[in-house]
Amino acid sequence: MTLLAFIIGVVFLAAAVFFVVGLHLMRTPRTARRGNLISAGGMITAVGATLVYAITLSHSHSLGWIALTSGVIVGGTFGVVRSRSVKMTDIPQLVSLFNAVGGGAAAAIAFADFLGRDVSAGLTPSTSVPVVLDVIIGSVSLSGSLIAAGKLQGVIPGQPIQFPGARVVNVVVVLVALGAGGAMIAQPTSWPMLLVVLVASLLFGVLMVLPIGGADAPVVVSLLNAFTGLAVAMAGFVIDNQSMIIAGALVGAAGTILTLQMAKAMNRSVLTIMLGGFGTGDSGSVALGATVTANVREVTADDVGLQLAYARHVIIVPGFGLAASQAQHEVAGLAKLLTDHGIDVKYAIHPVAGRMPGHMNVLLAEANVPYSQMLQLEEANPAFDTCDVALVVGANDVTNPAARRPGNAVSGMPILDVDHATSVVVVKRSMSPGYAGIPNELFSAPQTGMLFDDAKKALGDITLAVKQYVTT
Amino acid sequence: MTETLFSNLAIFVLSLLVGFEVISKIPSTLHTPMMSGANAIHGVVIAGAVAVAAAADTPAGYILTFIAALFASANVFGGYVVTDRMLRMFTPAAARPSTPVAATTPATTMSGKTS
After folding, report:
1. Neighbour count for residue B100 (Cβ, 10 Å)
2. Localized where (chain A) (predicted)?
3. Of A127, A23, A296, A205, whose CA–CA distance to B24 is shortest?
4. How do residues A22-55 score in pLDDT, each as one tens digit?
């Protein structure tokens, strides 16, 4: 080991410490921003060290550096511009898009490295195995994440897309990818074979995500995030770069944990999500019996305003509907009005509220809601017992008391105990069931009033109504 | 060669374990920024683009270098900027210019990294 290689190794180690400390600091909102900056510092360190090493080793072809620089300028500009302009409600698809390109970059690196090698004497498995794995995982992540982003953005229909014989096609594509990959490892001599691996894997990524419903897309994004992490780690093996191995493994672990937690919060297993065909809502309209709709009590914005104005403890339960109608500023405005008049207001946030875990917290933070008012599931549930009015805005399955009983689609799912509140108001556009496809018993409970409207408009009306009662 | 492979494998496995340990302590309220932050971290793949650029000496190599650099830099720059934008909103409101409630669109309330 030369002195330079030793120094580079130490610098890589320092970068790894930055990444781990940065992630660690993301556990509280107060330190999270600093954590991200420390992680960025680790990034600069790792890339800088790689750059120094590459320059000293390079038999310098200026075209390579030109290709690198122009790629960085174009890609970096795109990334920064998109990041600065994206709406907070559209964060999940942007994360998915960045994930896609990360996977694509990892696959491109393995491919380029393979092309640059002299394979006439064959390759050791310690190189060929990570090359093949990198190309497979990176390509699946690239095409799969693009499809998931398209579904979240609404460019691609959110319904599961299935066609006859899809399973057979899937199996064939996987066999081609693995077969070509195996051949590459056994006899790594021809790049067209690696191209077959690449194309089959890209195709598989598309086929894997198309049949998954829009509601499950966030879980898939998280899973593919783990994939990209692993692809980057494999690329690290290929070019022998420890900072890529460490960072890739960290992200692989993060994505895996998030995927499992999300699946748990949605009461689904990762396997059933991947098998797809869920989230159509077709079965629900059949199950919506007359008994449920008959007992529904409809209320007006004025009724709700009166109730809120004379309440002492109010809990707001924001859900996907709030995010969809971009009503985070309206809800925050209403809450501030109530708080200013001495009413205690809290938000009860289910782990999968919004379009990905923690997304609702980001939306509320954007609307200047203090972090201390946001209750997680475990903190929120005891609070419902002493709550006068629970205002549910665009949330559905996560409030269904049927989850406490066995034998239905939401059984066992962690829910918010909204039905424990003295009075419940649900703002929702219609009685249509949520993604689980079963009626919500909360809506027909005696203490519940339904306000059928778009979240943004309803919250505006309620705010006006409250103003009448609190100022006079 | 096998020695390098072994130490790299050890690093890989231990990093996975550290990742599981660190991530499982993060509350669900911060999962979106954390996922975005982790997403930015795998932008370290740009180091791979650098290595590939240094070795490239064929047209195919240059093209792949360009693609890798394009993708990786969108990932790394975009990832860090958007994560920072999100996390900045979690800092107390007093530290930021106040936002008129109920009238502003998200796109105009937050503009980049200036604070």
Report:
1. 9
2. Cell inner membrane
3. A23
4. 999 999 988 999 999 999 999 999 999 999 988 8
Interface of B with A in 41-70 (CB under 8 A): 41-58, 60-70
Chain B residues with CB-CB distance to A50 below 8 A? 47, 50-51
Q: Would you list the domain boundaries of chain A?
A: 1-78, 97-280, 284-471
Secondary structure in 3-state letters for B12-76: HHHHHHHHHHHHCCCCHHHHHHHHHHHHHHHHHHHHHHHHHHHHCCCHHHHHHHHHHHHHHHHHH
Q: Do A110 and B68 touch, CB atoms closer than 8 A?
A: no
Contacts of B109 in chain A (CB under 8 A): 366
Whether residue B77 lies inside any domain: the answer is: yes
The answer to whether residue B78 sits within a structural domain is: yes
In this predicted complex, what is the ipTM? Answer: 0.85
Interchain contact, A247 vs B41, CB within 8 Å = yes
In eight-state DSSP terms, residue B99 is: -
| Host H or E run for residue A392 | strand A389-393
Asked if B87's CB is within 8 angstroms of A36's CB, the reply is yes
Tokens of A320: 């996907």
Whether B15 sits inside 8 A of A376 (CB atoms) is no
Domain carrying residue B75: 44-88
A391 touches A465 (CB < 8 A): no
- Our answer to whether residue A397 is catalytic in this structure is yes
Rounded Cα distance, A62 and A440, in Å: 65
End-to-end CA distance of chain B: 49
Predicted pLDDT at A41 = 96
Contact state of B82 with A83 under an 8 Å Cβ cutoff: yes
A38-52 burial, b for 16+ CB within 10 Å, e for fewer?
bbbbbbebbbebbbe
Domain membership of residue B84 (yes or no) is yes
B69 domain residue, yes or no = yes
Are the C-beta atoms of A108 and A139 separated by less than 8 Å? no
Chain A residues whose CB is inside 8 A of the B46 CB are 47, 72, 105
Q: What is the pLDDT of residues B12-36, one digit of tens each?
A: 999 999 999 999 888 888 889 999 9
CA angle A245, A221, A439 (to 5 degrees): 150
Of B35, B61, B75, the CB nearest to A105: B75
Residue linked to tokens 């599961």: A160
- Chain B positions touching A106 (Cβ under 8 A) are 45, 48
Residues of chain A with pLDDT under 50: 277-291
> Under CATH, which number does the domain A284-471 receive?
3.40.50.1220
